[in-house]
Every structure is written in C-alpha cells, then in structure tokens.
Design a protein that fits this description.
By secondary structure, this protein is an alpha+beta fold. It is 61% helix and 14% strand. The strands form 2 sheets. A 4-stranded mixed sheet has the order 1-2-4-3. A two-stranded antiparallel sheet has the order 5-6. The longest helix has 70 residues, at 126-195.
Length: 294
C-alpha cells in the first residue's frame, strides 16, 4: 500500500551548473500532473508526464525543474539565443512590411520568448537535455518520492488494520446484541398483556405469529455476514504493498456503510443502535485515511 503524499528532489550537473527536479504529491481521485519546466524545454512536458504516469496511478503530482547556476564566475550572467533572435527578426521584417512601422522589442519580451535566458540554459538539443539532465534528475527524484510514499503507506496500513479490527469487534457485539432483541421484545409484549389483564396460560397462535414476524423483521444476520466478508476483503487489500488499492478500499467503505445503515434501520434496541453509531464513527475515520491511499 502506498500513500499519495510524498516528496522527492534531486540535482544533476548540466552545462557547467546544475538542474534540480522536485516532485511532490497530494491526494486526488484521479491522476493529475502539473509540470513546470524552463520555457526552452516546454516540448519535453509530454515525456515527463508519460514518465510520471508510468510510476504513479493516482494523486496530484507536481514536477518542477529548475536550472541553478553554480557559484562560479558565470553566476548571474545571461545568454542570448542568437538563432531564436534571428528567426524573430525575420518575422518582425514581415510585420514591418505589412504594418508600415517598426516593432519595438523590450527586455521583458525577450525573456518571455526565451531568447534571453540564464547562462545554464544554453542552446542544447532537447534530446541532449532529456538524456543527460532531465531524465537522470527525474529518476533520482522519483526514487525518493516513491520511497516516501511507501513509508507513508506503511503507516496508513497499520492504522487502517487497527481500525478494521475494531470494526470486527463491534460486529461481534452487534451480533450478540441482535440475538437478544426478540427475547426482550417477547418479555416486553407479555408484560404489557399482563398489565392489561390478559394472562396467556398456553402459547397463543397470534402471539407466536407476532413474535415470528418481529424476529424476521429485526434479523440482521445477512447484513452481519456481508459485513464480515467486506472486512476480510479490506484486510487482504491492505496487505497488497505493490498495488494501487485506493479505489477498491473506497468502494468497500461504501459497502460497509450500506450494511451498517441497514442494520441501524432494523435495530429495535438502544444497545444495538449505539453499536451501529460507534461503527459508523470508526468507519468515517477509515474513509478519511483511505482518501490518502493510492
């Protein structure tokens, strides 16, 4: 079992400086990827997204790649991408011919277009950037990210297992309480008849039929059987360390709630009703934890 929460970071040398990649994750129902790359490398976003999807199946994953200058003499220098500038100049000539006037370029425009950048973002081919810098940094960061998710998942598994055991104990108590309900109802019914002066010396057919109908109406054996099966399935999924189990666990929580809800509607005793409330409270804590499971 893995958590959807995690963080990983790594830096690799690149072009006399370094490239740092940070990966962070939070819980989401589906897989969402937010990729933040230096503008000249924007075309590599699809490859980064594919790499993330290969390792993560659920959650919002943020990937940020930053070019960091070294502490050497070139720190703070800027690099002019001459080929991009020449291409832009050709376009500006066409604009000048159409509009009949010159178009002024500001430093801000050059920065936004990636023509003027940090010195570490030299004009390297995207294939070179991907193989020599971005992919290695991404692999190291992902390794840390997955390791943290696995550790968080172990903690979640221990907590969920303890709460499922608690639900199992509450189920046993509900079974014992439900078994006493028909007998208590019979005693209460006979007591009311005696108070009204109706003493029955022998079993009365109407009384027997009434008790049989009541016992069938408040019988929760089917709900308890299904609840037991759901709890067993839940425990099995918890033990699957290398598989995404968040969605099936979320489904089981819904089914467990359904059985508890039906049991509560059939409850004809304060004790059984209180046990159902206690089980629903424990289940809500489980559902909150499951929202963090991949």
């Amino acid at each position: 079992m893995n958590s959807m929460t995690g963080f990983g970071a790594a830096s690799v040398p690149f072009c006399g400086a370094s490239l740092r990649v940070e990966i962070s994750g939070i819980n989401r129902k589906q897989l969402e990827c937010a990729i933040n790359l230096p503008r000249p490398w924007a075309e590599l976003e699809a490859q980064v997204r594919e790499y993330v999807a290969h390792h993560v199946s659920r959650g919002r994953v943020n990937v940020c790649a930053l070019s960091q200058s070294s502490d050497g003499a070139d720190k703070g220098l800027l690099h002019l991408h001459r080929e991009k500038l020449k291409t832009l100049n050709d376009y500006l000539k066409e604009v000048r011919e159409v509009c009949g006037r010159d178009v002024q370029l500001s430093v801000d425009t050059l920065l936004r277009l990636g023509i003027l950048t940090d010195s570490v973002e030299e004009e390297k081919s995207l294939e070179h950037v991907w193989k020599d810098a971005l992919l290695p940094a991404l692999q190291l960061a992902m390794e840390q990210f997955l390791q943290m998710r696995a550790q968080e998942g172990e903690n979640l598994a221990r907590d969920l297992n303890a709460r499922i055991l608690k639900l199992g104990e509450l189920r046993q108590q509900m079974l014992r309480s439900a078994a006493d309900v028909p007998a208590h109802y019979r005693e209460a019914l006979l007591r009311r008849l005696i108070e009204q002066g109706m003493v029955l010396d022998e079993p009365d057919e109407r009384l027997v039929k009434e008790l049989a109908l009541f016992a069938d109406k408040c019988d929760v054996s089917e709900e308890m059987t299904r609840l037991h099966s759901h709890l067993q399935q839940f425990e099995k999924f918890i033990l699957r360390a290398d598989e995404p189990v968040g969605r099936p666990l979320d489904f089981l929580c819904q089914e467990i709630f359904r059985e508890l809800n039906t049991t509560g509607s059939k409850a004809n005793s304060a004790e059984l009703a209180q046990l159902v409330v206690a089980a629903k409270t424990e289940l809500e804590k489980i559902r909150e934890q499951v929202q963090n499971v991949e």
